[in-house]
Amino acid sequence: MIELSLCVSCSFQVLILLLAANGAPVLATLVLGKRWAWSVDFGYTLRDNKRLLGDSKTWRGVCSGILITATVAMLFDLHLIIGAVFGMLTMLGDCVSSFIKRRLGYSPSSHARGLDTVPESLLPTLFLKQQLGLGLTDILLLVLVFFLFEEFISPVLYQWHIRNRPY
C-alpha cells in the first residue's frame, strides 16, 4: 500500500511538471507579448510548401518551458537537470505534434485532439520513467489525465483570457 501511495505522489508531481512545461509558453506570451518570439523553424518551408513548425513554436516558448519545468522540479526535490530534460522533452513532443499537424494540413495553432497532448506527455514520461519512478501503467494514466485536463481546462482558461483559443 505504501508503494501505491508513492506512485500516486510521483504521478501527481509529473502531472504538475507537464502542466508547468505546457503552461510556461502561454504565460511567457501573456507577460512578454511578441518580444523574443523568434520562430523555432526560422520560417523554413519544406518541399510541400508548408512551414516546418509554424510561428506558434518559438524559442521563447521552448526556453520558458524548460526553465519553468526545471524550477518546478526543484520544488519537488527533483534534480534541476531532470526538470530541464523533462521540459526539453515536453517541448520536443510539442514540436513533433506541430510538425505532424503541418504535414497533415492543419493550420498553425489548430486543434488536433490527442495529437496536441500525447507526444508532449508521452515523450518525457517514457524517457525519464526510471528517474521519476514511473511504470508503464503510470505513464498511460498520466497521458490520459493530461489529455482530459487539457480538454476540460483549456476552455476555462480561454474564458479567463489566459489562452487565445479554447483548446
Notes on the protein architecture:
The chain has 167 residues and is an all-alpha fold. Mean pLDDT is 88; it is low at 1-6. 66% of the residues lie in helices and 0% in strands. It has helices spanning 2-32, 59-75, 80-103, 118-127, 129-132, 136-159.
Helix and strand arrangement:
Elements: H1 2-32, H2 59-75, H3 80-103, H4 118-127, H5 129-132, H6 136-159
Helix pairs in contact: 1-2, 1-3, 1-6, 2-3, 3-4, 4-6
In sequence order, what are the helices and strands, one letter per element? HHHHHH
How many domain units?
1
Largest sheet: none
Fraction in helix: 55-70%
Number of strands: 0
What is this structure, in a nutshell?
With 167 residues, the chain is mainly alpha-helical. It has helices at 2-32, 59-75, 80-103, 118-127, 129-132, 136-159. Helices cover 66% and strands 0% of the residues.
List keywords for this structure.
167 residues; mainly alpha; 66% helix; disordered N terminus
